[in-house]
Amino acid sequence: MASLEAGRLIGRVSSAACGFRVDFVDDWKRAVARWSGAGQETAFQHPLWFEAWYSAFSSEASPLVAIVTDSVTERPVALIPLIVRAHHGVRIVEFADLNVTDYNAPILRVGAALDVAEARSMCQALVAALRKLPGKVDLIRLRKMPGGQFNPLAVLGRSGSSSLNGNIIAVGDDFEAYRNSIKRMQLPRSWRVFSRHPGATFRMIDTVDEALKIVDVMDQQQQTRMGKLGLAFSLNDSVHAKFYRDLVRRGLPEGYVVVAALTCDEGVVATVLGIKQGGSFVFLRISNGGNGWKNCSPSRLIIERTMAALHAQGLRRFDLSIGNYPFKRRFGAVQLRLTDASIALTWRGSPYAWRDYAAQSLRRHPRLAAFVGRLLRGRYPGEEE
User: Is residue 238 part of a domain?
Assistant: First the structure.
């Protein structure tokens, strides 16, 4: 796939039975040009996200963008951002993610509303098309899929089968009422403590140059924290650094990307990077200056201040992203269940699909899951779970 001519149509399958045609293109920009349809985008299923993603990660995996069309009306139905990569000799098709995208789904044409039967038919057409691709695909692995009308591919898996979940905060029109609901976190006290520092302020960053400087600080703060925890940090390597900076360059002027900071005369105390779409905002990355600022809870404080600023702009839905940390419950976040699906297309992919389904079943029994996970890590090195 990596050697294919950029943007060339590399596969097509039509099925009168399922009612959909699927074309594959190996270049995001040309796929968008072929798609030529306005999309129903969630925060992650947004052209600006994938422009930055494919630009940064094309060296890590081969783009494989699926364009789904109604075979009767010839109208576009969905644009599915996928990649194909090799893992221990197994060729895997998955979403354009690589542990960067929190939620995965197609981009649906505005007005497209697929019922369950139509969603299954679209999935059938996609799987059939992937079976016929040159070079063979061994495994389809679709992870972190929210359900609902914007994601027909979720019917391929069992709801809640993912080991990860979103964390959603719904805030009404009265932000002070929300503040009162989380008063046990004592954030007004944290603000008073922070405000004692000369020049203390919260700011939404509105220029690209300053936002990029804040991202530099964010990298440093997060790397320092991860180092103290004895954990690896990769978000400042060359590929991830390019992605986040491209995202800021493309998205901040459009109002898609938000960068915020707590600062004082001593420097940058905490940072936030996130994306917004419609009335929703997702916190992508949060950092703080370390233990020296612990008395004012800078990470929690910048979350609350960012929410307040965006609430004043009309946003009412906030997402603390994937990962189950206790502080998210204290902010009143409700878990958003996600779906995983694995489909083996060849015998090489079968062990991985079996393992994925076994892991989904084991998640209902946490202690047993932890024991089996330790056994499997040696057999399947490099796997996430």
Answer: yes
